[in-house]
Amino acid sequence: MLNQNQAENPFEGKVRVRVCGLLIENDQILLLKHDNIGPGGHLWSPPGGGVEFGESIEKTLKKEFEEETNLSIEVGDYLFTNEFISNKYHAIELFFQVVRVSGELALGNDPELSLEQQILSEARFFSPNELEKLPGNTIHNAFDAANARDKIAELRGLITFKH
Q: pLDDT at position 86, please?
């Protein structure tokens, strides 16, 4: 498991461009649990990952969904940008609506991390009621920018979160 205090953390101390997909089916949104991240000890976040040099945003998002969830998707509308800045991390995240094309949900892994550093521990859909019950320190900060957490797909523009 990745420890945020480890010097070998590949995401620390640099700007990282990420792409994230909001998959909503039957009024439920797909989130992944990332262990040892954030003040709550874990973080629920939409699937996605870092854009590599020379790789398109669309290709990145499709690849990340396949790796992390076993789902093939089509990328829909661009929704909003979330910028997260802390003393260790700076992420610029582009959020898109996505639609499942095929596959059955199964937790995958993050190929950017070694087997010993894997942080993904669960993949599941959340109802609006379940989203509201998650403690604020265990859910991606973009959810709190919406009027209600289940309205995250209605966000537009730039959201900046400094911690």
A: 86
